[in-house]
């Protein structure tokens, strides 16, 4: 009886462990690989900058992975011997991007060897593919493990483009996805292309009559004629057609507009109009007025699909290369495993203290893996990859003080010398150059991308937050000087970081050692700047969100905001606080009345132009208001006294009083008699910010000129 209770207890414990292991977590790698999302995003930015058409295939690959054996990376495995894998099955023969997945995985392996699964890498890549195509961004729950089985015949679980509505609903229901998920995820067809053979039956052989008049009657005639002009026969296996004509590289509502007009490319698209619920959803979003709602729905459905039949905990494996099983060497050790079975059994019989979780794992299908690892240990074999992983991690280059000591020992002296002359000519450039480093780091990391010029006018420099930015010529001047001394050695990203430090120092602020070794990025997108930079009217919740994404905490916020001690702003950046704070022609009640009256004299209604700060000499002659009236262009503590007394110039400044950590720091510095502690804190926070998503080693490049043209 007692033994029965023990067994029951163990079974219940096993169920609890297995249930808990099945929970994915957005912060799964926060300790083991905190940089994983940054690494994936860098590679994605690089790839889609060169080949935007990859976005659709990568999104499709994640979908195909999840619908066959769950989201376990099995679609990435190569066929082996007589076993044909999923990737070689007919539905997957047109998938693209396998090589790029391997490249991203290799970058992740360099950062965190043997830690992140291919299934998670693919899920992150799919999210970034959507986001970089101007779609929604969402937090991806992580913790998937990679599967070891990939069978071509199982791809019959994938909804084909010829599916009718009944077939679609059944296939989605089998994965616990409902009608809303069906219509929402179908809109993934807003990006990407398709081969003609996926839909030419609608044009020439819809009912099997195989003649020119056998067309899908639900297809709009003009669209059908256009498709026929591109796909001239049922035998066309090479021509690619946009799934969402006119915006196939942009994630938007165009898909719904086309489907509502009976211009969906696939039969499965048109089938969404045959059901009341899905038809209503299509028609609602065809109008284009509910983009945010659709983006939220798509994010939710992607998270839901991303949890389909996942392997977690001790299930599956972590592959080093996504196309090869990690345990492919197992047969070589079968004799070792067999020799050690009696040893393991004897431990269990003697009641060895294995622990509940270990017992549960022994009860799982992972027994073979556990025995293999135990056998390797008992036989004196070394588990492959441990020393290799440590070596790779040690070899991966990091930023360091003195990076240029051997290659360009005068680099920092040259930058400081040029900065002295630049600020003697125009002292007002100091805050702009400090701000440039901040804006560079917060958009794609500290990679110098803010300096790039865009032929299309859609680079970071063209974004609203950067329209009043100055200092580009100063960085170009410093770069030109360095190129005469050390050609193609010092990156623009490092020049910006050093110039920011020197701007602070030459404004009577602290001197600190700048870590260098950054490489320059080659992608600059205005929309990233619009999305990643906290606007001046942010509340404290928004500010903390923007900073936390860059691994900066509440203290870092309070410290770095102190740079508002130098510089000016146009009225437009704060005028809402004066005249229309809540949309009722009212004033921000947190703003000191006397200070507000002074600001209203400087910025009468309608006087705002550029909606950003530090914009000296901006558009339309807009008034320039000091961000810290007490110090002009001196880096000191008066900013904190100003915020505490008046609420600061920007709403974001005033919001520092709304959080206990930031308020405590403001109060401490407002009453400090010395700037020594603050200067030390500021130096530390700048170094920390300067490490944000940097490119090092063989990532990125060293540009010969900082303002190169792109796109």
TrEMBL record:
- The record places domain Plant heme peroxidase family profile at 23-326, 398-710
Identify the residues that bind Ca(2+) 1: 65, 68, 70, 72, 74, 86
- The record's active-site residues are 64
Single annotated GO MF: heme binding
Q: Which residues bind heme b?
A: 189
Cytoplasm in keyword set: no
Q: What are the alphabetically sorted keywords of the record?
A: Calcium, Disulfide bond, Glycoprotein, Heme, Hydrogen peroxide, Iron, Metal-binding, Oxidoreductase, Peroxidase, Pyrrolidone carboxylic acid, Secreted, Signal
The residue range of the signal peptide is 1-22
* Cystines in this chain: 33-112, 66-71, 118-322, 196-231
* Sites annotated Transition state stabilizer: 60
Q: Which SUPFAM superfamilies does this one have?
A: Heme-dependent peroxidases
Q: What is its EC number?
A: 1.11.1.7
What are its cofactors? Ca(2+); heme b
- Record-linked Pfam families: peroxidase
Where in the cell does this protein reside? Secreted
Reaction(s) catalysed by this chain, per the record, are: 2 a phenolic donor + H2O2 = 2 a phenolic radical donor + 2 H2O
What PROSITE patterns has UniProt attached to this entry? PEROXIDASE_1 (PS00435), PEROXIDASE_2 (PS00436), PEROXIDASE_4 (PS50873)
Q: Which residues bind substrate?
A: 159
Tell me the cofactor note. Binds 2 calcium ions per subunit. Binds 1 heme b (iron(II)-protoporphyrin IX) group per subunit.
How is this protein annotated for GO cellular component? extracellular region
| GO annotation (BP), single | hydrogen peroxide catabolic process
This chain's function reads: Removal of H(2)O(2), oxidation of toxic reductants, biosynthesis and degradation of lignin, suberization, auxin catabolism, response to environmental stresses such as wounding, pathogen attack and oxidative stress. These functions might be dependent on each isozyme/isoform in each plant tissue.
Q: Which PANTHER family match?
A: PEROXIDASE 25-RELATED
Question: What family does the database annotate?
Answer: Belongs to the peroxidase family. Ascorbate peroxidase subfamily.
Q: Spell out the protein name for this chain.
A: Peroxidase 1
Q: What is the protein's species of origin?
A: Oryza nivara (Indian wild rice)
